[in-house]
Write the C-alpha coordinates for this entry.
Amino acid sequence: MMASYTIAMIGAGNMGGSLVAGLINHGIAPHNIWVSDVNEEKLSSLHQQYNVHITIDNEKAIKAAEVIIFAIKPQFFKQILLSLAPILCARRPLIISIAAGIRTESMHHWLDANLSIIRAMPNTPALIGAGATALYADANVNEVDKQRASEIMGAVGLVLWVQQEKLMDVVTALSGSGPAYFFQMMESLQNAAVQLGLSEETAKLLTLQTGMGAIKMAMESGQSLNELCKAVTSPGGTTEQALAVLQEADLSTVFSKALQAAKKRSEELADQLGA
Protein backbone atom coordinates (compact mmCIF):
# COMPACT_ATOMS: atom_id res chain seq x y z
CA MET A 1 0.00 0.00 0.00
CA MET A 2 1.40 3.35 -1.05
CA ALA A 3 1.36 6.41 1.20
CA SER A 4 -1.49 8.86 0.69
CA TYR A 5 -0.71 11.96 -1.36
CA THR A 6 -2.28 13.65 -4.36
CA ILE A 7 -0.79 13.28 -7.83
CA ALA A 8 -1.42 15.34 -10.96
CA MET A 9 -0.64 13.64 -14.26
CA ILE A 10 -0.04 16.19 -17.01
CA GLY A 11 -0.59 14.08 -20.12
CA ALA A 12 -3.00 11.20 -20.70
CA GLY A 13 -1.09 9.35 -23.41
CA ASN A 14 0.13 5.75 -23.27
CA MET A 15 2.68 6.28 -20.51
CA GLY A 16 0.47 8.60 -18.47
CA GLY A 17 -2.43 6.18 -18.71
CA SER A 18 -0.22 3.25 -17.75
CA LEU A 19 1.03 5.11 -14.70
CA VAL A 20 -2.54 5.84 -13.63
CA ALA A 21 -3.41 2.14 -13.93
CA GLY A 22 -0.29 1.13 -12.01
CA LEU A 23 -0.91 3.65 -9.24
CA ILE A 24 -4.50 2.48 -8.78
CA ASN A 25 -3.35 -1.15 -8.68
CA HIS A 26 -0.75 -0.24 -6.03
CA GLY A 27 -3.22 1.36 -3.67
CA ILE A 28 -3.45 5.05 -4.57
CA ALA A 29 -7.11 6.06 -4.17
CA PRO A 30 -8.73 7.38 -7.37
CA HIS A 31 -9.70 10.60 -5.60
CA ASN A 32 -5.98 11.28 -5.06
CA ILE A 33 -5.22 11.30 -8.80
CA TRP A 34 -5.85 14.14 -11.23
CA VAL A 35 -5.22 13.79 -14.97
CA SER A 36 -5.02 16.75 -17.33
CA ASP A 37 -4.90 16.60 -21.12
CA VAL A 38 -6.26 18.43 -24.17
CA ASN A 39 -7.70 15.14 -25.45
CA GLU A 40 -11.10 14.85 -23.79
CA GLU A 41 -11.69 11.37 -25.23
CA LYS A 42 -8.61 10.01 -23.45
CA LEU A 43 -9.64 11.76 -20.25
CA SER A 44 -13.14 10.32 -20.42
CA SER A 45 -11.74 6.83 -20.93
CA LEU A 46 -9.47 7.12 -17.87
CA HIS A 47 -12.35 8.45 -15.77
CA GLN A 48 -14.62 5.58 -16.82
CA GLN A 49 -11.92 2.98 -16.13
CA TYR A 50 -10.49 4.31 -12.86
CA ASN A 51 -12.81 7.08 -11.60
CA VAL A 52 -9.92 9.57 -11.32
CA HIS A 53 -10.38 13.33 -11.50
CA ILE A 54 -10.02 14.69 -15.03
CA THR A 55 -9.63 18.19 -16.46
CA ILE A 56 -8.41 20.01 -19.56
CA ASP A 57 -7.00 22.72 -17.27
CA ASN A 58 -3.40 21.96 -16.21
CA GLU A 59 -3.49 24.62 -13.50
CA LYS A 60 -6.58 23.07 -11.91
CA ALA A 61 -4.81 19.71 -11.65
CA ILE A 62 -1.64 21.28 -10.25
CA LYS A 63 -3.55 23.24 -7.60
CA ALA A 64 -4.93 19.96 -6.25
CA ALA A 65 -1.67 18.00 -6.09
CA GLU A 66 1.55 17.55 -4.13
CA VAL A 67 3.33 15.64 -6.89
CA ILE A 68 3.22 16.70 -10.55
CA ILE A 69 4.14 14.17 -13.24
CA PHE A 70 4.85 15.53 -16.70
CA ALA A 71 4.05 12.71 -19.13
CA ILE A 72 4.18 14.82 -22.29
CA LYS A 73 6.19 14.78 -25.50
CA PRO A 74 9.61 16.46 -25.18
CA GLN A 75 8.96 18.90 -28.04
CA PHE A 76 6.00 20.39 -26.14
CA PHE A 77 7.61 20.39 -22.71
CA LYS A 78 9.24 23.84 -22.71
CA GLN A 79 6.10 25.65 -23.84
CA ILE A 80 3.91 23.90 -21.27
CA LEU A 81 6.38 24.33 -18.41
CA LEU A 82 6.81 28.05 -19.15
CA SER A 83 3.04 28.52 -19.10
CA LEU A 84 2.80 26.77 -15.73
CA ALA A 85 5.88 28.35 -14.13
CA PRO A 86 3.97 30.87 -11.96
CA ILE A 87 1.71 28.30 -10.31
CA LEU A 88 4.51 25.74 -9.94
CA CYS A 89 6.77 28.32 -8.29
CA ALA A 90 3.95 29.39 -5.99
CA ARG A 91 3.00 25.86 -4.90
CA ARG A 92 6.48 24.24 -5.08
CA PRO A 93 5.37 20.62 -5.58
CA LEU A 94 7.63 17.70 -6.40
CA ILE A 95 8.04 17.60 -10.18
CA ILE A 96 8.67 14.28 -11.93
CA SER A 97 9.44 14.53 -15.63
CA ILE A 98 9.33 11.53 -17.94
CA ALA A 99 9.96 13.73 -20.98
CA ALA A 100 13.00 12.15 -22.63
CA GLY A 101 16.05 14.35 -23.07
CA ILE A 102 14.99 17.30 -20.92
CA ARG A 103 17.71 18.04 -18.37
CA THR A 104 16.99 19.39 -14.89
CA GLU A 105 19.18 22.40 -15.67
CA SER A 106 16.83 23.34 -18.53
CA MET A 107 13.76 22.90 -16.33
CA HIS A 108 15.21 25.12 -13.60
CA HIS A 109 16.08 27.75 -16.21
CA TRP A 110 12.54 27.77 -17.65
CA LEU A 111 10.98 27.90 -14.20
CA ASP A 112 13.51 30.47 -12.96
CA ALA A 113 13.38 28.74 -9.58
CA ASN A 114 15.03 25.89 -7.66
CA LEU A 115 12.14 23.47 -7.30
CA SER A 116 12.42 19.76 -6.47
CA ILE A 117 12.78 17.99 -9.80
CA ILE A 118 13.26 14.31 -10.59
CA ARG A 119 13.92 12.94 -14.06
CA ALA A 120 12.56 9.52 -14.93
CA MET A 121 13.46 7.39 -17.93
CA PRO A 122 10.97 4.52 -18.27
CA ASN A 123 10.68 2.21 -21.26
CA THR A 124 7.76 0.84 -23.23
CA PRO A 125 7.32 -2.40 -21.20
CA ALA A 126 6.04 -0.05 -18.48
CA LEU A 127 2.84 -0.09 -20.53
CA ILE A 128 2.26 -3.65 -19.25
CA GLY A 129 3.72 -3.14 -15.78
CA ALA A 130 7.10 -4.66 -16.71
CA GLY A 131 9.14 -1.52 -17.24
CA ALA A 132 12.64 -0.52 -16.19
CA THR A 133 12.88 3.08 -15.00
CA ALA A 134 15.98 5.02 -14.02
CA LEU A 135 15.56 8.07 -11.78
CA TYR A 136 17.80 11.06 -11.17
CA ALA A 137 17.14 13.63 -8.43
CA ASP A 138 18.66 17.09 -8.35
CA ALA A 139 20.10 18.60 -5.18
CA ASN A 140 16.77 20.14 -4.13
CA VAL A 141 15.03 16.78 -3.68
CA ASN A 142 14.70 15.35 -0.17
CA GLU A 143 14.45 11.70 0.86
CA VAL A 144 10.67 11.81 1.25
CA ASP A 145 10.27 12.96 -2.33
CA LYS A 146 12.74 10.33 -3.55
CA GLN A 147 10.65 7.68 -1.82
CA ARG A 148 7.51 9.01 -3.45
CA ALA A 149 9.14 8.92 -6.88
CA SER A 150 10.28 5.34 -6.28
CA GLU A 151 6.74 4.35 -5.29
CA ILE A 152 5.16 6.06 -8.28
CA MET A 153 7.48 4.71 -10.95
CA GLY A 154 7.65 1.35 -9.16
CA ALA A 155 3.97 0.98 -9.99
CA VAL A 156 4.98 0.11 -13.57
CA GLY A 157 8.10 -1.98 -12.99
CA LEU A 158 11.69 -1.92 -11.73
CA VAL A 159 13.16 1.35 -10.40
CA LEU A 160 16.85 2.24 -10.13
CA TRP A 161 18.56 5.52 -9.21
CA VAL A 162 21.59 7.07 -10.92
CA GLN A 163 23.75 9.61 -9.09
CA GLN A 164 24.92 11.61 -12.12
CA GLU A 165 22.50 13.15 -14.60
CA LYS A 166 24.81 12.45 -17.54
CA LEU A 167 24.19 8.75 -16.95
CA MET A 168 20.58 9.25 -18.02
CA ASP A 169 21.91 9.32 -21.59
CA VAL A 170 23.46 5.89 -21.03
CA VAL A 171 20.19 4.67 -19.52
CA THR A 172 18.34 5.96 -22.57
CA ALA A 173 20.69 4.00 -24.81
CA LEU A 174 20.42 0.79 -22.75
CA SER A 175 16.95 0.39 -21.28
CA GLY A 176 15.11 3.23 -22.99
CA SER A 177 15.92 2.02 -26.49
CA GLY A 178 16.71 -1.52 -25.35
CA PRO A 179 13.33 -3.15 -26.03
CA ALA A 180 13.84 -2.45 -29.74
CA TYR A 181 17.17 -4.32 -29.68
CA PHE A 182 15.46 -7.39 -28.27
CA PHE A 183 12.56 -7.12 -30.73
CA GLN A 184 15.03 -6.86 -33.62
CA MET A 185 17.05 -9.83 -32.38
CA MET A 186 13.94 -11.97 -31.89
CA GLU A 187 12.63 -11.08 -35.33
CA SER A 188 15.98 -12.07 -36.87
CA LEU A 189 15.92 -15.44 -35.07
CA GLN A 190 12.32 -16.03 -36.10
CA ASN A 191 13.02 -15.21 -39.75
CA ALA A 192 16.11 -17.44 -39.81
CA ALA A 193 14.09 -20.36 -38.43
CA VAL A 194 11.38 -19.83 -41.06
CA GLN A 195 14.03 -19.90 -43.79
CA LEU A 196 15.17 -23.25 -42.38
CA GLY A 197 11.66 -24.72 -42.63
CA LEU A 198 9.64 -23.88 -39.51
CA SER A 199 6.23 -22.24 -39.84
CA GLU A 200 6.11 -18.58 -38.88
CA GLU A 201 3.85 -19.33 -35.90
CA THR A 202 6.09 -22.11 -34.57
CA ALA A 203 9.22 -20.03 -35.08
CA LYS A 204 7.70 -17.07 -33.27
CA LEU A 205 6.46 -19.11 -30.29
CA LEU A 206 9.78 -20.90 -29.87
CA THR A 207 11.69 -17.62 -30.16
CA LEU A 208 9.53 -15.83 -27.59
CA GLN A 209 9.48 -18.70 -25.10
CA THR A 210 13.23 -19.19 -25.42
CA GLY A 211 13.76 -15.50 -24.72
CA MET A 212 11.41 -15.58 -21.72
CA GLY A 213 13.08 -18.68 -20.34
CA ALA A 214 16.58 -17.28 -20.77
CA ILE A 215 15.63 -14.02 -19.05
CA LYS A 216 13.96 -15.89 -16.17
CA MET A 217 17.09 -18.01 -15.70
CA ALA A 218 19.30 -14.91 -15.81
CA MET A 219 17.19 -13.20 -13.15
CA GLU A 220 16.70 -16.16 -10.81
CA SER A 221 19.70 -18.49 -11.12
CA GLY A 222 22.28 -16.35 -9.34
CA GLN A 223 24.79 -17.17 -12.07
CA SER A 224 26.53 -14.65 -14.31
CA LEU A 225 25.44 -14.31 -17.92
CA ASN A 226 28.77 -15.78 -19.01
CA GLU A 227 28.30 -18.82 -16.74
CA LEU A 228 24.80 -19.39 -18.09
CA CYS A 229 26.08 -19.19 -21.64
CA LYS A 230 28.82 -21.72 -20.92
CA ALA A 231 26.27 -24.08 -19.33
CA VAL A 232 24.42 -24.30 -22.66
CA THR A 233 27.60 -24.74 -24.69
CA SER A 234 29.02 -28.26 -25.10
CA PRO A 235 32.42 -28.71 -26.78
CA GLY A 236 31.89 -29.54 -30.43
CA GLY A 237 28.14 -29.06 -30.12
CA THR A 238 25.57 -27.00 -31.99
CA THR A 239 25.62 -24.03 -29.60
CA GLU A 240 29.40 -23.74 -29.89
CA GLN A 241 29.11 -23.58 -33.68
CA ALA A 242 26.42 -20.89 -33.53
CA LEU A 243 28.35 -18.80 -31.01
CA ALA A 244 31.46 -19.00 -33.18
CA VAL A 245 29.53 -17.33 -36.00
CA LEU A 246 28.32 -14.59 -33.64
CA GLN A 247 31.85 -14.04 -32.35
CA GLU A 248 33.17 -13.87 -35.91
CA ALA A 249 30.64 -11.11 -36.56
CA ASP A 250 32.00 -9.37 -33.42
CA LEU A 251 28.57 -9.06 -31.85
CA SER A 252 29.95 -7.40 -28.69
CA THR A 253 31.44 -4.58 -30.74
CA VAL A 254 28.20 -4.19 -32.69
CA PHE A 255 26.22 -3.71 -29.47
CA SER A 256 28.88 -1.38 -28.08
CA LYS A 257 28.68 0.80 -31.18
CA ALA A 258 24.87 0.73 -31.07
CA LEU A 259 24.78 1.98 -27.47
CA GLN A 260 27.40 4.64 -28.20
CA ALA A 261 25.32 5.89 -31.15
CA ALA A 262 22.14 6.01 -29.06
CA LYS A 263 23.92 7.78 -26.19
CA LYS A 264 25.38 10.38 -28.56
CA ARG A 265 21.96 11.05 -30.09
CA SER A 266 20.43 11.36 -26.61
CA GLU A 267 23.02 14.02 -25.74
CA GLU A 268 22.36 15.87 -29.01
CA LEU A 269 18.60 15.87 -28.43
CA ALA A 270 19.07 17.14 -24.88
CA ASP A 271 21.12 20.05 -26.24
CA GLN A 272 18.45 20.86 -28.83
CA LEU A 273 15.45 20.49 -26.51
CA GLY A 274 17.06 22.44 -23.69
CA ALA A 275 17.82 25.51 -25.78
Remarks:
- The longest helix spans residues 251-273.
- The chain has two domains: 7-171, 178-269.
- The chain has a mean pLDDT of 95.
- Residues 7-171 form a domain with the Rossmann fold fold (CATH 3.40.50.720).
